[in-house]
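USER:
Before I trust my own judgement here, I would like a peer's view. Write it directly below this note and I will take it from there.

ASSISTANT:
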Amino acid sequence: MLLTLAGVFGIVIVSLTLPDHRIDDASFARLREGMTLPEVEALLGVSAGDYRVAPVGSADGGFGPTDSFGPSEEPKVRLHWYGDARWIHVGFDGQGKVVAGWCGITVKARDSFLRRLGRWFGLGMG
């Protein structure tokens, strides 16, 4: 019982300390060629990084892309944003402007009992 309570407490702490991001389909739809990195970060709410709480189910963390824009050749720089439901990759040219974007579905591993319990209590656990 004490171990379960400690686990639930840990889930609450993790969910309260993660930054509030907007790594989702709506934000991806608002990405445009020519945007700068600060504009992309403002749109997504966070800098590039991994904001998944749920365990990852595959090496790259997802399926896709399910949506994309821009040329098919690899950009000079590609930055990655990972959320529990979606991932977004944004390609930039040599001047730091968006030239391409990709969005896909994040794969989740089988959830633990504590993660399911956290979702049941509405703690936003993926």
